[in-house]
Amino acid sequence: MRLRAALLCSFSTAICFAADPALTVYNQQFAVVRETIPLDLKQGLNQIQFTGTTAQLEPESVMLRDPSGQRLLRVLEQNYRADPVSLEALMQRYEGQTIDFEIHNGDRVETVSGKIVRAEAAVPAQWFNQSAYFAQPQPPGVAQPIIEVAGKLRFGLPGTPLFPGLGPGMILQPTLDWTIETDRAGPVNAELAYVTGGFNWNADYNFVQTDANKLDIIGWVTLENRSGKQFENARVKLMAGDVNKLQPQNGATSGRIRFGGNAGLGGFGAAPQVVEKTFDEYHLYTLQRPVTIHGSESKQVEFVRANNVKAETLYIYDGAKIDASRYQGWQPEAIRQDASYGTVSNRKVWVMREFVNSDANHLGMPLPKGRIRFYRRDTDGRLEFTGEDAIDHTAKDEKIRVFTGSAFDLTGERRRTVFHNDMNRQSMDEGFEIKVRNHKKEPAEIRVVEHLYRWSTWDIATSSVPYTKTDAQTIEFHVSLQPDEEKTVTYIAHYTW
To answer: What is the residue range of 325's domain?
Structure first.
């Protein structure tokens, strides 16, 4: 066990420090911290001062217990202070008093005296606690200091303030003051656990294309520590799943927060650096070696490495260009009667990559949500970026499809050729002509996607190319094209209601 220091807690107020830190980090800017605090308690009441917390601790989440269960350990009273010495705190401490200010003028340094008429308003610590999760507007009441120098008032500081010293009650670190009751005297390694803001993490995947349908994968977890505390040789876990977390009471409303995780996959004969297991309804991932996370630091840890992942390239032409803002709030009946709906053509052919997260495909572990980037080597051997997208939490054996951009040498156009709305018979016929072209030097297959958005009851009256029904209101035509070839797809949909 790695201990920093511990003073006996059998008299007055003792200052204690923690050891063996462990973190469970969630990707919505908070973490659960667990540490061991060595205490030497007397029977009855003890005053303990713990100075090793973060600056964004949630005081109501604090739990202190004897993990062995061999003694009664009750916190009768707790006071949390997160206002360590700062310029604003000292300015307020000496408000109304005269102090010296150091002024640098070229190579000369001179000192002037000034009275702090008004200190700069400090932002309360609890404001930062609540804004750790959700952005808040600038708090009211923050104003510039007013300093009187040589009988004249000025806004702002005339120079660097030189304070006489710390005032009574001022602290250098965030501090927990406890009144602890125990049933017997003696040493105990107490376990401290609490929720704190200021932590975050995210997952990133880098996919390198090795041939037409094969990819190598390298993934990173990025840990961020903005909690105001350094954690040395910490055991770190990451939680994946849709965990419900309420905002602090000073926040706007309660709500659901989504969390992610990271998966560890062995590759190239290396042992995994992150190991995954099921935990309750979620997935818990453990970094296999302790890491030191400094304050205000971002740290990357490799967590997935695999090769020869089969990933198919798909070309999708979804030819209807619809202005979603124009039709926001429209009812299906209104869309059905709008003759111009869906008649504007989109010319772009989308490039999609699709792969299965399975053992057979050299993956097969739950993957967290995160950004996924694609690269391909040029003829000179250098990697070139070819697109990126984001994935959600993906369970084992699920299929992943991501958008990487639009094809340069594949194009499409779409125009309506038939529109007949028979209100008396409660039916409609609508037909389209879709042209797709391949200007690539190699063959390509384009999946032409059509959305039958007029009504839920439909059938295809005529079609020049066989189609596949992919859901209740979507069909696909698979069109194979040789280099510099154009093909046309026509169909008529018959709607009834």
So the answer is: 311-357+398-496
**pLDDT tens-digit profile of 364-407?**
888 888 999 999 999 898 999 999 999 988 889 999 999 999 99
**Most confidently modeled range among 110-114, 166-170, 369-373, 428-432:** 428-432
Exposed / middle / buried, residue 212 (Cβ in 10 Å: 0-12, 13-18, 19+): exposed
DSSP 97-123: SEEEEEEEETTEEEEEEEEEEEPPPPP
Q: Which of 106, 141, 162 is the last residue of a domain?
A: 162
Whether 254 and 333 share a structural domain? no
Measured CA distances, 382 to 108, 195, 351, 387 (Å): 55, 45, 22, 16
Model pLDDT, residue 12: 42
> 392 lies in a domain?
no
Cα-based angle 463, 465, 469 (whole degrees, multiple of 5)? 80
pLDDT reading at 259 higher than 70? no
Nearest to 309 by CA among 215, 212, 206: 215
Kindly state whether residue 383 falls inside one of the protein's structural domains: no
Give the separation between CA 489 and CA 487, rounded to whole angstroms.
7
Least confident of 85-99, 143-157, 447-461, 481-495: 85-99
Residue 414 · residue 346 · CB < 8 Å: yes
- 474 shares its domain with 421: yes
Query: Helix, strand or coil for residue 88?
Result: helix
Kindly state whether residues 70 and 123 are assigned to the same domain. no
Query: Confidence class of residue 245 from pLDDT cuts 50, 70 and 90?
Result: low
Q: Which of 204, 207, 203 is nearest to 354 (CA)?
A: 207
How much of the chain, in percent, has pLDDT values that exceed 90?
A: 59
Considering its fold, how many domains does the chain have in total?
A: 4
Proportion of the chain above pLDDT 70, given as a percent: 82
Question: Is residue 329 located within the same domain as residue 452?
Answer: yes
Domain membership of residue 242 (yes or no) is yes
Please say if the pLDDT value at position 121 is more than 50.
Answer: yes
- Same domain assignment for residues 122 and 222: no
What is 275-342 written as a DSSP string? EEEEETTEEEEEESS-EEE-TTEEEEEEEEEEEEEE-EEEEEEE-B---TTTTTT--HHHHHH-TTTT
In a domain, 386, yes or no: no
Q: Starting at the edge strand that comes first in sequence, how are the strands of the sheet with 13-16 ordered?
A: 13-16, 44-50, 175-182, 73-81
